[in-house]
Each structure stands twice: as structure tokens, then as C-alpha cells.
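Q: My labmate handed me this sequence with no annotations at all. I'd like to see what the chain might look like in three dimensions before we decide whether it's worth expressing. Could you predict it?
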Amino acid sequence: QYLQNGQLAPEAYVLIPQLPAACRGWEDVQEALMQLLSAVQESCHTDPEGVSLTGHSMGGTGVWQLALRYPDSFCEIAPLSGSVQASAENVSKLRSLPVWAVVGSEDAVVDPSLSVQMVEALSEQNAQAYITVIEGADHFAVPEEAYLSGRFDIIGWLIGGDSLPQEDFKNLYQRYLIKNGYFYLCCLVLLFQVLV
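A: Here is what I predict for the chain of 196 residues:
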């Protein structure tokens, strides 16, 4: 919806695969997603080192899962309201991957503490692991706040690869107030940087 109505217009190829109805989660189709990724990279001549991944809800969980299985396939990930376990094995797999997780403090669908715990553990080994907790936001408010509010430049970070401004992340948590509507999204979004 954000792309279709022009609210987001990244300078990148954007792939938004749909999860088949018979599947319970993105983990069921990881190999097919990676085959799709390879096909798009080949046909569109994208930078194989410039693939970013984001998603919300089931898509946020899928971001964590796909990055854990294929950590060298992505240059940055931004899971929104996703579920992940902060195990030593998971932390080890993502110790070199830039991560910007976003959750709502009032999320009653996916426990925000799961992402918080993961990023806290990850940040001990990965200086580019960040968490943004949107104060007062429920599960459905997170995508609009993260992608469209103007407070964050997650899409720019995903396709530009620039470091997050350190002054904005002096504390582990950045807290913002929700001011407007809701949007529900539970897809994965892959962003491909174009080779010049």
C-alpha cells in the first residue's frame, strides 16, 4: 500500500513475496524465497551485496528467521514486531549483520521483550544492533510509525547502508509517542540495490 500510493518510493527494486495460505510462517518457504532472491538478482542485475530485508508481524518474525538461516545474504535487516529467541546460537549467527529492530511498547500480539532481549544480547557482539521501542504503540501502529512518520529513516538505512546517527542512539531505547492511525502489514519486503 505504501508503495502503491507513493508514500514510499525507495531507489531500489522492491520485492514483496506473499506467503501461501497453506503455510504457517515464512520458515516454511525459506528455500523458495532464496531461489526467488537469486532469480531477481540475476534478471535485474542487482548488487548481490546490497540486499536488505524488512517486514512486520509475521513478516518481522520471517526477517529474523531468514537472516538467522542465511546471515551472509543480507546487508541490513529491520524486523518490526517480530518474534525471536535470544539464544547464544542466534546471537552468534547475527554478530556481523546490521540490525535495526522496531517494536511497540504496548504490543499485545508479539511480545516486544523478545526483540529487546535479542538486540540487548546481540549488541554485546555487534556494534550495529539497535532497537527502537515506540512508546505507547500497539502491534498495528508500528509499521506506519516506522516507515512513514518521518521520525525514522529505516528505508533509507536499508538501501543506503549508512550508520545510524549515534546521537540518536545514546540509549539502547529510543521512545516516541504514537499520534495517528494504524496499518497492518505482515509481509516480508526485500530491497535490492541497483548496480551502477
